[in-house]
Amino acid sequence: MKISRMALLAVAVTLGASFAPAVSAQQPEAQAPLYDRLGGLKGITEVVDDFINRLVSNRTLNKNPAINAGRKSSPAPYLKFQVSQLVCEASGGPCKYTGKTMKESHVHLNISEQEWGVMAKEFKRTLNKFKVAEAEQKELFDIVGKTKADIVTRK
Ligand code: HEM
For residue 57, which of 76, 74, 73, 43 has the smallest C-alpha distance? Predict the structure, then answer.
């Protein structure tokens, strides 16, 4: 039997039209881990670098003598390393955080609710500067938020 070119074309168009949208609707692309969406270690270390620079130079935070003393015992490059490892691991990256627990490293700093708020504002400024999208910002704030009970020790 001879099938005309037009008939073949009609079949191809029909198949294409019925399969293509159905496949993409049924199999949405899996969401990449937050770590990858942040640009891996390169993205994370850039963000952490800017964030720690803001924290260590923040006048309100440095008025707290315990925080100010902590700056001397844990220099900025060390904090950048530890916080990067922590964020890398918590976002699904290949790192292993080996620093102290959040309680151990902050309990002596006498951190207040207000100081926590100052930190959160600086974090937001950093994320906006690097144009981190809202969805990823929210996921990062969720990760950071989980540490609050161990870090804030006064009203
Ligand atoms: C108001 C908020 C915060 C302030 C003022 C603050 C300040 C500090 C200071 C001064 C140190 C050094 C302490 C010392 O050597 O005695 C430190 C350590 C550290 N902080 Fe924070 N921090 C805050 C929140 C956070 C958050 C939200 C995270 C992570 C989610 C974090 C992660 C770390 C890590 C990983 C270390 C190093 C731990 C170690 O030495 O092994 N900090 N922080």
Answer: 76
Residue having the nearest C-alpha atom to atom 33 of ligand 1: 83
* 4 DSSP assignment: P
pTM of the model: 0.85
pLDDT in tens, 27-46: 667 899 999 999 999 999 99
Residue written as token pair 């099938």: 3
Ligand 1, atom 27: closest residue by C-alpha: 144
Ligand 1 close to Cβ of residue 111 (< 6 A): yes
Q: What is the pLDDT of residues 106-123, one digit of tens each?
A: 999 999 999 999 999 999
Where do the domains of the chain lie? 34-154
- DSSP letters, 26-40, are HSPPPPPPHHHHTTH
Atom number of ligand 1 nearest to Cα 118: 1
* CB distance 68 to 62 below 8 Å: yes
The answer to whether the CB of 144 is under 6 A from ligand 1 is yes
CATH class of the domain comprising 34-154: mainly alpha
What are the CA-CA distances from residue 39 to residues 20, 33, 70, 73, 120 (Å)? 31, 10, 30, 30, 21
